[in-house]
Design goal:
Elements: E1 6-10, H1 15-25, E2 30-37, H2 44-59, H3 61-64, E3 67-74, H4 76-81, H5 107-122, E4 126-128, H6 144-158, E5 163-165, H7 173-195, E6 207-208, E7 211-212, H8 218-235
Parallel strand pairs: 1-2, 1-4, 2-3, 4-5
Antiparallel strand pairs: 6-7
Helix pairs in contact: 1-7, 2-7, 5-6, 7-8
Length: 236
């Protein structure tokens, strides 16, 4: 149901952000998207973004009527100052501080700040992000407390009332698949499987039941396990 307002969705081209985009399209009269090129190793996510948007417009006309402009922001400077497994070719491993080296320091803070600046200009009150505390990789910038702090900073710093929505914050990956089904039934689940990109190693050649990816990196492992749990719950 629409409440007559506008939303801006942080849209990477991955499973979570695509599900959040559908969530927003069910609720708001006008929805725009924002993505970021920060020199990420898994650049396939940038390639699938327009494919997903076109597929959503074609397969879900009611959503297509609400889907507005897509904005791709160049944040290459973030990749230049990051030494992580997501911004350079290095093995994915845990670090001494207990965080995986796929953590890009400041990434979500920057993403939300730029989203707030764009939302201010575009007249959107609602900002939607696919961060998750239940099923995340230990990233501190995915925590609910972090998001609440950023929301407060945006509201104070821009003297405007923004609301940051995190529909996936307290659900796991299996429940994210289930949410996709509730939003768009089998057609949307199939779209997510076929077109979204999750794999940290940028693999779009190996096809699995849950979609494309190497099948071994942490992102693929999480997505695959969630898919299996979702299918088992459906069957029971």
């Amino acid at each position: 149901m629409s409440d007559g307002t506008s939303a801006l969705v942080l849209f990477s081209g991955g499973q979570d952000s695509t599900t959040c985009l559908a969530w927003a399209l069910e609720r708001y009269a006008h929805v725009e998207t924002i993505g970021f090129d920060y020199g990420q190793r898994h650049r396939a996510e940038l390639d699938v973004r327009p494919v997903i948007l076109d597929a959503m417009r074609a397969r879900f006309p009611a959503w297509g009527e609400k889907l507005g402009e897509d904005h791709l922001i160049d944040l290459g400077v973030l990749g230049q100052i990051s030494e992580t497994a997501l911004t350079q070719s290095s093995a994915i491993e845990m670090q001494e501080n207990g965080l995986p080296n796929t953590f890009v320091p400041g990434r979500n803070l920057l993403f939300l700040t730029f989203a707030g600046a764009l939302a201010y200009r575009r007249g959107a009150r609602h900002i939607v992000a696919g961060v998750c505390e239940t099923d995340f990789s230990g990233y501190p910038d995915c925590r609910d407390d972090t998001i609440k702090a950023v929301q407060l900073s945006l509201n104070l710093g821009m003297d405007k009332r923004f609301v940051i929505h995190t529909p996936l914050m307290w659900i796991d990956k299996a429940e994210t698949w289930a949410l996709a089904y509730r939003l768009g039934q089998t057609g949307f689940v199939d779209l997510v499987r076929e077109h979204t990109h999750t794999c940290y190693l940028n693999d779009r050649t190996h096809r699995h039941d849950w979609g494309y990816g190497c099948g071994t990196c942490p992102a693929c492992d999480l997505r695959a396990k969630g898919w299996i749990a979702y299918r088992n719950a459906e069957a029971s």
